[in-house]
What we know:
Layout: H1 3-16, E1 26-28, H2 34-45, E2 51-55, H3 56-62, E3 72-76, E4 82-95, H4 101-106, H5 114-130, E5 141-152
Parallel strand pairs: 1-3
Antiparallel strand pairs: 2-5, 3-4, 4-5
Amino acid sequence: MSVDKIEEYWxxxxxxxxxxxxxxxxxxxxxxxxxxGDELGGLVVKxxxxxxxxxxxxxxxxGEVIPKVGQFDIVLDGENNPLAxxxxxxxxxxxMNEVTSDFVSSEGEGDLSYDYWYRGHVKFFSWExxxxxxxxxxxxxxxxxxxxxxxxxxDRL
Length: 157
């Protein structure tokens, strides 16, 4: 990851918008693979993906802080380069088997159907939970995060 590039991007945005906060977290969507990072990050930049979710228990296991409304983050591509700055607009705690079709659509993946989303997320969460010795269940508590893109890196090139 080019830490300098991420920091420069944030500093430019913060200066233009008179923000005095430190560089926010920068991360890639998905399983850490270049392919998934590029695909999902591309959906964010196009404005198709405005939501994401994570297993609540993983925040605890990794010692991560759950995002808050108004928080900024920097989305990276599959090579850990900055793509966009997002700002969280809504955070909900929902069991996986109770996620709404509206939220599913906000994730912007596949054919936008609940079935597509559910199958893909069962596969992902089963893989992720297994790394911590945990087993997936349909009532897995999720942190459903809705965001808006407030700046894109490509517009600055």
